[in-house]
Amino acid sequence: MDNYTNDNTARRYKAYVSTLGTTQLHLRNPYIVAWWSAAFPGFGHMLLSKYLRGYALFIWEVVVNIKAHVNLSMIYSFQGNIEMAKEVLDTRWLLMYIPVYLFGIWDSYRTTVDMNRAYLLAEREEHRFNSFSIGSLEINYLDKLNPIIAVMWSLFIPGLGQLYIHRILTALFVIVWLVVFFYYSHVQEAVVLLFLGQIKEATAVLKPEWLLFIPSHYGFAVYDSYINTVENNKLFEKDLRNHLTEKYQSANFQILKGQKVK
């Protein structure tokens, strides 16, 4: 049940609140979104709430990257072993990897520009949207939250910050893949060995081709939770302002521009 049901008469809507999360249009920097797509294909689209496209590119990145040994090649190149870096690459998979990687960057940039235009038009229309949704499994509503807390929980475990701000789809996806990356990289085993002082054993147990996925995963979770908390707060303030103006402000109230009020 929603506190307001749209009649679908507007050409564009700024936001949609459902039990799975709050989806909204707002101004974004297309270069930042494209950068996240370059850091990890799919992240740029997930920032835009283009979930199906983002999930597809993300899974493609993981599967084809592992098959082509891209991360392993990067490890060798970091160590200065260029010949080994070239040898481990599987060109059968690499030639499929490159075009999709470039597409993810280009498409996220193009989509951001288009969505910014749609936001500006939706802002002019000022059509009403629901701000409260309750169902048998979940409740979601606009509220003011602390972006620092969202960042803190994301630093503990990626996905918890998204749960804090009720981005359920992103939270579940990020948490599931974090478990996959932790399991196959053996990073937790390495941490335990490191605490025990067994540095060589900790280094040996790590799987670097899986380990390299984790920094981008953490970075995206922190950035996504922070930026969406800030934008949700702006949406909440604007919705509250419109509600107070409509219900409590006198129809005869006027703002006297350019005149001093005594």
Supply the number of helical segments: 13
Low-confidence stretches: none
Instruction: Assess the beta-strand content as a share of residues.
Output: 5-15%
**Helix/strand order:** EEHHHHHHEEHHHHHHH
Adjacency order of strands in the biggest sheet: 1-2
Derived from helix and strand composition plus strand pairing, the structural class reads: mainly alpha
Helix content: 55-70%
Biggest β-sheet strands, sense, barrel:
2 strands, antiparallel
Q: Radius of gyration in whole Å, from Cα?
A: 23 Å
Average pLDDT for all residues: 91
- The span between the termini is 47 Å
Question: In one word, what is the shape?
Answer: elongated
- Quantity of strands, as a count: 4
